[in-house]
Amino acid sequence: MTVLNIIEAIDRWAMKEANRPVYVEANRTYTYGELKQESDAVAAYLQDNFERAQPVVVYGELEFEMLACFLGASKSGHPYIPIEAHTPKERIEMILEVAKPAVIFAIKEWPNIKTSAEIVSINQLREICEQPIQSVPLIPVTGAETYYTIFTSGTTGVPKGVQISHDNLLSFVNWELRDFGITEGMRFLSQAPYSFDLSVMDLYPALTSGGSLTPLRKEIINDFKQLFTVLPTLEIEVWVSTPSFMDICLMEPTFDEEHVENLKIFLFCGEELSKATAQKLLDRFPKARIFNTYGPTEATVAISRIEVTQELLDAYNRIPIGYVKADTRVYIMDKDQTIPNGEVGEIVIVGPSVSKGYLHNPEKTSQAFFELDDQRAYRTGDAGKLVEDLLIYEGRIDFQVKLHGYRIELEDIDHHLASVSYVKQAAVVPKYQNHKVQQLVAYVVSYPHNFEKEFQLSKAIKEELAGSVMDYMIPQKFIYVEQLPLTPNGKIDRKGLMNEVNKP
């Protein structure tokens, strides 16, 4: 199964079999025919009203209409930007400032944020989708044009928009369809928010192969009782999530092959898969195939994979991040020098899935991206080594961490903490367990305050911080100090604080 064009591959299923299920909710199943009809209507609306290539924001959660808007944008030559409905107002404002979108499709109610973009509500969208479509040829996104932009955490507090082209996405999708045992018409779990690039691992491989998506909404995930009731009822074959979400699901003893009998393939990305999680999963689902994958948003979701077996777990203390996909190369580098096999350095990715760079941010783009052997290359900031062809992860080079699958710049949180009214100075560090970030710890120098207890101060700081950062970026623990330790260069000694927090 080789895909030559994303949109054509998806539309082909609608024309071949309009009633084929594409989005399966508890009380409603949507078809490929409906997806084509609605996305064509969105595309016609965009083509009639906006200049080609202007960004389109799609704001919501895991609704079918999100898909129709994504595809409608792509069909009419517009890159789309997914924004999750729980995103703090300040972060949305910063994204809009960078992206300058022409239109916002508000699948969920749009917050009170001023913007020059046209806002299309869910009711207006339904009206657009009911209009008869004039048969005008559409000019979809193709080649090196940007297909979507996903915003990640930035060191200065301003999110960075990673631009992924049609060809970047094509490289990723064809690899997943070829190397993971996926066949036509499989049923995929859709759990990751669309603003998190892990969602691309289920979204496009499912739609281009005539498969379906089964969304697992936030309100169910956040209520364990409901989650554990729903899990056995999901008739899914392909599981896509972070290892952290799997850890939650494994708390339910009946989450196993006997009770969830359709599951055939597990795909993990977004953070490190621990041996303990992998072992539990192997024990519970002995007939399923389990894959650990690795890759940054800047190289389109993932670029390496390894199948987790008992032999692999017995052979390694830390699960390798796999073999690099056929069209891509990885170099281990120290600045601009390549390091020999077996030595640890920075993982640099070269190949057709590497992004053109950050939207309207030439400075950050030039720091992270460059040309190598006439191809696009990206400095990941991850430490690793190659043992023959096998890629081994060795942690972060800088102060960027993964928590529950989300990539977080520690300096981003510092920046927002410093603007909280009670905080004079702050530094956030990760606490690890089994090589994996378990929590974020904030060292804080506070201004004089009237709180009797430290936990009251922490509560007040968290409440104020929640207005400017995502909930997963709020530190779980606060340690109050008179001053932060400094390095000989006069910088905050973050490594010293990390050693303090992670003392055995």
**CATH topology name of the largest domain:** Rossmann fold
Shape: globular
Q: Report the major sheet.
A: 11 strands, mixed
Average pLDDT, rounded to a whole number, is 94
| Count of structural domains | 3
CATH architecture of the largest domain: 3-Layer(aba) Sandwich
Please identify the oligomeric state.
Answer: single chain
CATH fourth-tier homologous superfamily of the largest domain: ANL, N-terminal domain
Which stretches of 5+ consecutive residues score pLDDT under 50? none
Description:
31% of the residues lie in helices and 28% in strands. With 504 residues, the protein is an alpha/beta fold. The longest helix is centred in the first third of the chain and has 18 residues, at 32-49.
List the keywords.
alpha/beta, Rossmann fold, GMP Synthetase, Chain A, domain 3, globular
Task: Summarize the helices and strands and which ones pair or pack.
Blueprint: H1 6-16, E1 21-25, E2 28-31, H2 32-49, E3 56-60, H3 64-75, E4 80-84, H4 89-99, E5 103-106, E6 118-121, H5 122-130, E7 146-152, E8 160-165, H6 166-179, E9 187-190, H7 200-208, E10 212-215, H8 218-221, H9 224-230, E11 238-241, H10 243-249, E12 265-268, H11 275-284, E13 289-294, E14 304-307, H12 310-315, E15 322-324, E16 329-334, E17 337-338, E18 345-350, E19 357-358, H13 362-368, E20 369-372, E21 375-387, E22 390-396, E23 400-403, E24 406-409, H14 410-418, E25 423-433, E26 436-446, H15 454-465, E27 477-480, H16 494-501
Parallel strand pairs: 3-4, 3-5, 5-6, 9-10, 11-12, 12-13, 26-27
Antiparallel strand pairs: 1-2, 7-8, 8-19, 13-14, 14-15, 15-22, 16-17, 16-18, 18-21, 20-21, 21-22, 23-24, 25-26
